[in-house]
Amino acid sequence: MDAAMEDAAAAQPEREWDGGGGGADAVLGLAGAGASLSLCYHEAFGPHDELILLEAADDLLPDLLQGRVTVRGRPEEEAVLCTPSATYAMKFVGNSNSVFLIPPGESAAPTSRPNGTDGDDNVASATDAVGSIIKVASGNIELVRTAPRLDKLRKLLNERPYVLDEDLGSDVQHQKGLYTWQDLCELVQASDGELSEQLSSISAVEINGFWRMVDDSSANTILDMILHNSVLHDWSLNSVPEDDVLDVMESDGFMRKIVTHYLNRFGTKVEKEARGCWSLDERRVCLQFARRALGAGKMKLENFMDKWERSIPSGMRADLQMLEGEVLCEKLGTETWVHTFSVADLPLAPAERFAALFRERPKWEWKDLQPYIRDLRLPGVSSEGLLIKYTRRTQPSADAEPIFTAR
Description:
This protein is an alpha+beta fold. It has four domains: 3-146, no CATH class; 151-212, no CATH class; 216-280, Arc Repressor Mutant, subunit A, CATH 1.10.10; 315-406, Aspartate Aminotransferase, domain 1 (Alpha-Beta Complex), CATH 3.90.1150. It has 14 helices and 18 strands. It has helices spanning 3-11, 24-28, 61-65, 151-157, 181-187, 192-201, 216-232, 242-251, 256-266, 282-293, 301-311, 350-360, 366-369, 383-390, and strands at residues 39-41, 53-55, 70-72, 80-82, 87-101, 131-133, 135-146, 205-207, 210-212, 240-241, 267-272, 275-280, 299-300, 327-332, 335-340, 363-365, 391-394, 403-406. A hairpin with a 7-residue loop joins β3 (70-72) and β4. The protein starts with a helix and ends with a strand. It comes from Oryza punctata. Keywords: DNA replication. Residues 1-20 are annotated as: Disordered. Belongs to the DCC1 family.
Protein backbone atom coordinates (compact mmCIF):
# COMPACT_ATOMS: atom_id res chain seq x y z
CA MET A 1 0.00 0.00 0.00
CA ASP A 2 1.51 3.42 -0.97
CA ALA A 3 1.56 6.51 1.26
CA ALA A 4 -1.65 7.94 -0.19
CA MET A 5 -3.50 4.70 0.48
CA GLU A 6 -2.16 4.47 4.02
CA ASP A 7 -3.25 8.05 4.73
CA ALA A 8 -6.68 7.37 3.28
CA ALA A 9 -7.09 4.19 5.30
CA ALA A 10 -6.01 5.90 8.49
CA ALA A 11 -8.49 8.68 7.91
CA GLN A 12 -11.43 6.29 7.70
CA PRO A 13 -12.80 5.03 11.03
CA GLU A 14 -13.72 1.33 10.82
CA ARG A 15 -17.49 0.89 10.63
CA GLU A 16 -19.83 -2.02 11.04
CA TRP A 17 -19.89 -4.12 7.87
CA ASP A 18 -22.85 -6.24 6.78
CA GLY A 19 -20.81 -8.53 4.51
CA GLY A 20 -21.69 -6.95 1.17
CA GLY A 21 -21.61 -3.64 -0.62
CA GLY A 22 -18.51 -4.22 -2.72
CA GLY A 23 -19.57 -4.74 -6.31
CA ALA A 24 -17.33 -7.77 -6.80
CA ASP A 25 -19.47 -9.07 -9.68
CA ALA A 26 -18.52 -6.05 -11.75
CA VAL A 27 -14.85 -6.73 -11.12
CA LEU A 28 -15.23 -10.38 -12.11
CA GLY A 29 -17.04 -9.26 -15.25
CA LEU A 30 -14.11 -7.29 -16.61
CA ALA A 31 -13.17 -8.58 -20.05
CA GLY A 32 -10.96 -7.50 -22.90
CA ALA A 33 -7.71 -5.60 -23.08
CA GLY A 34 -7.86 -2.15 -21.55
CA ALA A 35 -11.05 -2.82 -19.59
CA SER A 36 -11.12 -0.84 -16.37
CA LEU A 37 -13.31 0.37 -13.56
CA SER A 38 -13.06 2.73 -10.65
CA LEU A 39 -12.17 1.46 -7.20
CA CYS A 40 -12.98 3.21 -3.96
CA TYR A 41 -12.69 2.43 -0.29
CA HIS A 42 -15.79 0.88 1.22
CA GLU A 43 -17.31 3.01 3.95
CA ALA A 44 -16.42 0.17 6.36
CA PHE A 45 -12.83 -0.15 5.09
CA GLY A 46 -10.40 -1.31 7.77
CA PRO A 47 -8.05 -4.07 8.87
CA HIS A 48 -10.86 -6.64 9.34
CA ASP A 49 -8.57 -9.22 10.95
CA GLU A 50 -11.38 -11.78 10.79
CA LEU A 51 -10.95 -11.93 6.98
CA ILE A 52 -8.02 -14.06 5.80
CA LEU A 53 -7.40 -15.34 2.29
CA LEU A 54 -7.05 -19.10 1.98
CA GLU A 55 -5.55 -20.74 -1.10
CA ALA A 56 -6.85 -24.27 -1.68
CA ALA A 57 -6.56 -26.90 -4.39
CA ASP A 58 -9.68 -27.89 -6.31
CA ASP A 59 -9.97 -31.25 -4.55
CA LEU A 60 -10.32 -29.45 -1.20
CA LEU A 61 -13.18 -27.20 -2.28
CA PRO A 62 -16.04 -29.66 -1.59
CA ASP A 63 -14.91 -30.10 2.03
CA LEU A 64 -14.36 -26.36 2.47
CA LEU A 65 -17.64 -25.26 0.91
CA GLN A 66 -19.70 -27.87 2.78
CA GLY A 67 -18.17 -27.07 6.16
CA ARG A 68 -16.34 -30.37 6.60
CA VAL A 69 -13.06 -28.84 7.78
CA THR A 70 -11.78 -27.86 11.21
CA VAL A 71 -8.75 -25.94 12.40
CA ARG A 72 -7.00 -27.80 15.20
CA GLY A 73 -4.25 -26.86 17.60
CA ARG A 74 -3.62 -25.38 21.03
CA PRO A 75 -2.52 -21.73 21.43
CA GLU A 76 1.14 -22.81 21.73
CA GLU A 77 0.97 -25.01 18.59
CA GLU A 78 1.04 -24.19 14.88
CA ALA A 79 -2.50 -24.64 13.63
CA VAL A 80 -3.43 -27.30 11.09
CA LEU A 81 -6.53 -27.62 8.91
CA CYS A 82 -8.20 -31.03 8.91
CA THR A 83 -10.64 -32.52 6.43
CA PRO A 84 -12.40 -35.76 7.43
CA SER A 85 -9.41 -37.77 6.18
CA ALA A 86 -6.32 -35.55 5.86
CA THR A 87 -4.23 -32.95 7.70
CA TYR A 88 -2.79 -29.76 6.17
CA ALA A 89 -0.19 -27.39 7.55
CA MET A 90 -1.31 -23.74 7.37
CA LYS A 91 1.46 -21.43 6.20
CA PHE A 92 1.03 -17.67 5.85
CA VAL A 93 2.64 -16.27 2.69
CA GLY A 94 3.06 -12.51 2.36
CA ASN A 95 2.18 -10.57 -0.80
CA SER A 96 4.71 -8.26 -2.44
CA ASN A 97 1.86 -6.36 -4.15
CA SER A 98 -1.31 -4.88 -2.72
CA VAL A 99 -4.27 -7.25 -2.91
CA PHE A 100 -7.68 -5.59 -2.63
CA LEU A 101 -10.62 -7.51 -1.17
CA ILE A 102 -13.89 -6.44 -2.76
CA PRO A 103 -17.10 -7.91 -1.29
CA PRO A 104 -20.08 -9.13 -3.33
CA GLY A 105 -23.34 -7.23 -3.69
CA GLU A 106 -24.15 -3.75 -4.97
CA SER A 107 -21.35 -1.28 -4.38
CA ALA A 108 -21.86 0.81 -1.26
CA ALA A 109 -21.42 4.56 -1.16
CA PRO A 110 -17.68 5.12 -1.68
CA THR A 111 -15.25 7.14 0.37
CA SER A 112 -11.81 7.85 -1.08
CA ARG A 113 -10.13 6.33 -4.10
CA PRO A 114 -7.09 4.18 -3.45
CA ASN A 115 -4.99 5.85 -6.11
CA GLY A 116 -5.88 9.33 -4.95
CA THR A 117 -5.79 10.69 -8.50
CA ASP A 118 -9.11 12.22 -9.55
CA GLY A 119 -10.33 15.31 -7.84
CA ASP A 120 -8.65 17.75 -5.50
CA ASP A 121 -10.50 16.44 -2.46
CA ASN A 122 -9.62 12.80 -3.29
CA VAL A 123 -13.30 11.78 -3.12
CA ALA A 124 -15.04 9.81 -5.86
CA SER A 125 -18.61 10.30 -6.93
CA ALA A 126 -21.13 7.52 -6.46
CA THR A 127 -21.73 7.28 -10.21
CA ASP A 128 -18.21 6.32 -11.28
CA ALA A 129 -17.37 4.00 -8.38
CA VAL A 130 -17.95 0.35 -9.19
CA GLY A 131 -15.74 -1.61 -6.77
CA SER A 132 -15.52 -0.86 -3.05
CA ILE A 133 -12.44 -2.16 -1.21
CA ILE A 134 -13.13 -3.53 2.26
CA LYS A 135 -9.55 -4.53 3.11
CA VAL A 136 -6.03 -4.72 1.74
CA ALA A 137 -4.70 -8.26 2.24
CA SER A 138 -1.06 -8.53 3.21
CA GLY A 139 -0.90 -12.22 2.28
CA ASN A 140 -2.76 -15.51 2.25
CA ILE A 141 -2.68 -18.92 3.90
CA GLU A 142 -1.38 -21.84 1.87
CA LEU A 143 -2.36 -25.41 2.70
CA VAL A 144 0.34 -28.08 2.52
CA ARG A 145 -0.51 -31.74 3.08
CA THR A 146 1.34 -32.95 6.16
CA ALA A 147 1.56 -36.01 8.37
CA PRO A 148 -0.88 -35.97 11.31
CA ARG A 149 0.72 -34.99 14.62
CA LEU A 150 -0.17 -38.08 16.58
CA ASP A 151 2.67 -38.44 19.09
CA LYS A 152 0.56 -36.64 21.69
CA LEU A 153 -2.17 -39.29 21.50
CA ARG A 154 -0.22 -42.07 23.20
CA LYS A 155 0.99 -39.66 25.90
CA LEU A 156 -2.57 -38.60 26.67
CA LEU A 157 -3.92 -42.14 26.85
CA ASN A 158 -0.99 -43.33 28.96
CA GLU A 159 -1.87 -40.81 31.66
CA ARG A 160 -4.54 -43.18 32.93
CA PRO A 161 -4.37 -46.69 31.43
CA TYR A 162 -7.25 -49.04 32.11
CA VAL A 163 -6.69 -51.63 34.83
CA LEU A 164 -8.98 -54.51 35.67
CA ASP A 165 -11.52 -53.92 38.46
CA GLU A 166 -10.95 -50.16 38.49
CA ASP A 167 -13.66 -47.90 39.93
CA LEU A 168 -13.87 -44.59 38.09
CA GLY A 169 -16.59 -43.02 40.22
CA SER A 170 -18.89 -40.42 38.73
CA ASP A 171 -17.40 -37.07 39.77
CA VAL A 172 -15.06 -34.96 37.66
CA GLN A 173 -12.07 -35.55 39.93
CA HIS A 174 -12.23 -39.30 39.28
CA GLN A 175 -12.26 -38.63 35.53
CA LYS A 176 -9.00 -36.68 35.49
CA GLY A 177 -6.65 -38.02 32.83
CA LEU A 178 -9.51 -39.56 30.83
CA TYR A 179 -10.42 -38.38 27.33
CA THR A 180 -13.53 -38.65 25.21
CA TRP A 181 -13.48 -38.67 21.41
CA GLN A 182 -14.31 -34.96 21.41
CA ASP A 183 -11.46 -34.26 23.84
CA LEU A 184 -9.01 -36.05 21.56
CA CYS A 185 -10.26 -34.15 18.51
CA GLU A 186 -9.55 -30.89 20.32
CA LEU A 187 -6.13 -31.93 21.63
CA VAL A 188 -4.62 -33.97 18.78
CA GLN A 189 -3.78 -32.37 15.44
CA ALA A 190 -5.11 -35.00 13.09
CA SER A 191 -8.17 -35.60 10.95
CA ASP A 192 -10.97 -37.77 12.31
CA GLY A 193 -9.99 -40.60 9.97
CA GLU A 194 -6.31 -40.46 10.91
CA LEU A 195 -7.14 -40.26 14.61
CA SER A 196 -9.47 -43.25 14.41
CA GLU A 197 -6.85 -45.27 12.51
CA GLN A 198 -4.18 -44.50 15.11
CA LEU A 199 -6.46 -45.43 18.00
CA SER A 200 -6.88 -48.82 16.36
CA SER A 201 -3.14 -49.09 15.67
CA ILE A 202 -2.20 -48.60 19.34
CA SER A 203 -4.99 -50.96 20.52
CA ALA A 204 -6.97 -48.30 22.36
CA VAL A 205 -10.53 -49.13 23.39
CA GLU A 206 -13.51 -46.94 24.28
CA ILE A 207 -14.79 -47.71 27.79
CA ASN A 208 -17.73 -45.79 29.27
CA GLY A 209 -17.23 -43.00 26.73
CA PHE A 210 -13.48 -42.61 27.35
CA TRP A 211 -10.68 -43.84 25.09
CA ARG A 212 -8.21 -45.96 27.05
CA MET A 213 -5.01 -47.93 26.74
CA VAL A 214 -4.98 -51.15 28.76
CA ASP A 215 -2.02 -51.60 31.08
CA ASP A 216 0.37 -54.47 30.34
CA SER A 217 -0.49 -56.50 33.42
CA SER A 218 -4.21 -56.41 32.63
CA ALA A 219 -3.55 -57.28 28.97
CA ASN A 220 -1.51 -60.31 30.04
CA THR A 221 -4.23 -61.42 32.45
CA ILE A 222 -6.93 -61.21 29.78
CA LEU A 223 -4.86 -63.17 27.24
CA ASP A 224 -3.98 -65.79 29.85
CA MET A 225 -7.66 -66.25 30.72
CA ILE A 226 -8.65 -66.63 27.06
CA LEU A 227 -5.97 -69.31 26.64
CA HIS A 228 -6.83 -70.98 29.96
CA ASN A 229 -10.52 -71.23 29.06
CA SER A 230 -9.62 -72.57 25.61
CA VAL A 231 -7.78 -75.47 27.27
CA LEU A 232 -10.45 -75.92 29.95
CA HIS A 233 -13.31 -76.09 27.45
CA ASP A 234 -11.35 -77.86 24.72
CA TRP A 235 -11.64 -74.99 22.23
CA SER A 236 -9.24 -75.00 19.31
CA LEU A 237 -7.12 -71.83 19.20
CA ASN A 238 -8.15 -71.58 15.54
CA SER A 239 -11.84 -71.66 16.46
CA VAL A 240 -12.65 -70.06 19.81
CA PRO A 241 -16.48 -69.65 19.98
CA GLU A 242 -17.22 -65.98 20.62
CA ASP A 243 -20.45 -66.30 22.61
CA ASP A 244 -19.05 -69.06 24.80
CA VAL A 245 -15.79 -67.32 25.68
CA LEU A 246 -17.60 -64.04 26.38
CA ASP A 247 -20.12 -65.75 28.67
CA VAL A 248 -17.43 -67.65 30.56
CA MET A 249 -15.18 -64.65 31.05
CA GLU A 250 -18.07 -62.38 31.99
CA SER A 251 -18.96 -64.84 34.74
CA ASP A 252 -15.35 -64.46 35.94
CA GLY A 253 -15.77 -60.68 36.18
CA PHE A 254 -14.35 -59.51 32.83
CA MET A 255 -16.19 -56.88 30.78
CA ARG A 256 -17.48 -58.32 27.49
CA LYS A 257 -16.22 -55.27 25.62
CA ILE A 258 -12.68 -55.71 26.94
CA VAL A 259 -12.65 -59.42 26.10
CA THR A 260 -13.94 -58.69 22.58
CA HIS A 261 -11.26 -56.02 22.20
CA TYR A 262 -8.52 -58.51 23.04
CA LEU A 263 -9.97 -61.23 20.85
CA ASN A 264 -9.68 -58.69 18.03
CA ARG A 265 -6.16 -57.69 19.08
CA PHE A 266 -4.85 -61.26 19.20
CA GLY A 267 -7.02 -62.91 16.58
CA THR A 268 -9.25 -62.73 13.53
CA LYS A 269 -12.99 -63.31 13.50
CA VAL A 270 -14.20 -66.19 11.33
CA GLU A 271 -17.58 -67.77 10.64
CA LYS A 272 -17.73 -71.48 11.41
CA GLU A 273 -20.90 -73.54 11.22
CA ALA A 274 -23.00 -70.36 11.36
CA ARG A 275 -21.26 -69.34 14.60
CA GLY A 276 -18.96 -66.44 15.24
CA CYS A 277 -15.51 -67.75 16.19
CA TRP A 278 -12.04 -66.28 16.69
CA SER A 279 -8.84 -67.69 15.27
CA LEU A 280 -5.91 -66.61 17.47
CA ASP A 281 -2.97 -65.29 15.46
CA GLU A 282 0.27 -67.13 16.21
CA ARG A 283 2.53 -64.12 15.67
CA ARG A 284 0.48 -61.72 17.78
CA VAL A 285 0.13 -64.16 20.66
CA CYS A 286 3.81 -65.18 20.59
CA LEU A 287 4.86 -61.52 20.42
CA GLN A 288 2.95 -60.78 23.63
CA PHE A 289 4.75 -63.63 25.40
CA ALA A 290 8.11 -62.41 24.05
CA ARG A 291 7.50 -58.97 25.53
CA ARG A 292 6.68 -60.60 28.83
CA ALA A 293 9.84 -62.73 28.73
CA LEU A 294 11.99 -59.64 28.13
CA GLY A 295 10.25 -57.59 30.80
CA ALA A 296 13.22 -57.92 33.16
CA GLY A 297 15.66 -56.45 30.63
CA LYS A 298 18.48 -57.64 28.37
CA MET A 299 18.98 -61.42 28.09
CA LYS A 300 21.30 -63.84 26.36
CA LEU A 301 19.63 -65.02 23.17
CA GLU A 302 19.64 -68.71 24.10
CA ASN A 303 18.15 -67.99 27.54
CA PHE A 304 15.48 -65.79 26.02
CA MET A 305 14.54 -68.36 23.37
CA ASP A 306 14.27 -71.09 26.01
CA LYS A 307 12.06 -68.93 28.25
CA TRP A 308 9.94 -67.76 25.33
CA GLU A 309 9.37 -71.22 23.84
CA ARG A 310 8.33 -72.64 27.21
CA SER A 311 5.79 -69.84 27.79
CA ILE A 312 3.83 -69.86 24.52
CA PRO A 313 0.65 -71.96 24.04
CA SER A 314 0.98 -75.56 22.94
CA GLY A 315 0.91 -75.88 19.17
CA MET A 316 2.45 -72.46 18.51
CA ARG A 317 6.04 -72.02 17.35
CA ALA A 318 8.37 -69.20 18.38
CA ASP A 319 10.40 -67.60 15.59
CA LEU A 320 12.74 -64.61 15.89
CA GLN A 321 11.30 -63.17 12.66
CA MET A 322 8.08 -62.54 14.59
CA LEU A 323 9.97 -59.94 16.63
CA GLU A 324 10.99 -57.56 13.81
CA GLY A 325 10.54 -54.03 15.06
CA GLU A 326 10.13 -55.27 18.64
CA VAL A 327 13.55 -56.50 19.83
CA LEU A 328 17.18 -55.90 18.89
CA CYS A 329 20.01 -58.41 18.91
CA GLU A 330 23.61 -57.38 19.51
CA LYS A 331 26.90 -59.25 19.58
CA LEU A 332 28.97 -58.86 22.75
CA GLY A 333 32.09 -60.90 22.28
CA THR A 334 31.05 -64.40 21.34
CA GLU A 335 27.53 -64.08 22.74
CA THR A 336 24.34 -62.60 21.31
CA TRP A 337 22.08 -60.60 23.61
CA VAL A 338 18.53 -59.37 23.00
CA HIS A 339 16.53 -56.51 24.48
CA THR A 340 13.20 -54.84 23.89
CA PHE A 341 13.15 -51.93 21.43
CA SER A 342 9.63 -51.48 20.07
CA VAL A 343 8.72 -49.36 17.08
CA ALA A 344 5.44 -48.60 18.88
CA ASP A 345 7.38 -46.58 21.47
CA LEU A 346 9.21 -44.42 18.91
CA PRO A 347 8.14 -40.94 17.70
CA LEU A 348 5.95 -40.78 14.60
CA ALA A 349 7.60 -37.67 13.12
CA PRO A 350 10.46 -38.71 10.78
CA ALA A 351 13.09 -36.34 12.22
CA GLU A 352 12.44 -37.46 15.79
CA ARG A 353 12.19 -41.12 14.71
CA PHE A 354 15.63 -41.14 13.06
CA ALA A 355 17.14 -39.22 15.99
CA ALA A 356 15.84 -41.88 18.39
CA LEU A 357 17.15 -44.69 16.19
CA PHE A 358 20.65 -43.25 16.02
CA ARG A 359 20.68 -42.68 19.76
CA GLU A 360 20.06 -46.40 20.13
CA ARG A 361 22.67 -47.36 17.53
CA PRO A 362 25.13 -45.15 15.62
CA LYS A 363 25.14 -47.61 12.70
CA TRP A 364 22.31 -49.70 11.29
CA GLU A 365 22.23 -52.51 8.77
CA TRP A 366 19.25 -52.31 6.43
CA LYS A 367 17.69 -55.57 7.67
CA ASP A 368 17.60 -54.12 11.20
CA LEU A 369 16.61 -50.57 10.21
CA GLN A 370 13.77 -51.34 7.81
CA PRO A 371 11.25 -52.61 10.43
CA TYR A 372 11.66 -49.34 12.33
CA ILE A 373 10.91 -46.97 9.43
CA ARG A 374 8.44 -48.80 7.19
CA ASP A 375 5.47 -47.26 9.04
CA LEU A 376 6.66 -43.68 8.49
CA ARG A 377 4.33 -41.64 6.30
CA LEU A 378 5.15 -38.17 5.01
CA PRO A 379 2.94 -36.90 2.15
CA GLY A 380 4.92 -36.47 -1.03
CA VAL A 381 8.07 -38.14 0.34
CA SER A 382 8.99 -41.77 -0.37
CA SER A 383 10.85 -44.07 2.01
CA GLU A 384 13.92 -43.61 -0.17
CA GLY A 385 13.52 -39.85 0.15
CA LEU A 386 13.43 -40.12 3.94
CA LEU A 387 16.61 -42.20 3.92
CA ILE A 388 18.38 -39.64 1.74
CA LYS A 389 17.27 -36.79 4.00
CA TYR A 390 18.11 -38.32 7.38
CA THR A 391 20.84 -40.92 6.77
CA ARG A 392 24.16 -41.54 5.06
CA ARG A 393 24.53 -44.84 3.25
CA THR A 394 27.86 -46.63 2.93
CA GLN A 395 28.56 -49.95 1.25
CA PRO A 396 32.16 -51.21 1.37
CA SER A 397 31.55 -53.59 -1.53
CA ALA A 398 28.77 -54.55 -3.91
CA ASP A 399 28.13 -57.72 -1.95
CA ALA A 400 28.23 -56.09 1.49
CA GLU A 401 25.14 -55.14 3.49
CA PRO A 402 24.60 -51.33 3.28
CA ILE A 403 25.23 -49.43 6.51
CA PHE A 404 23.21 -46.35 7.51
CA THR A 405 24.48 -43.60 9.82
CA ALA A 406 23.03 -40.23 10.85
CA ARG A 407 23.32 -37.42 8.32
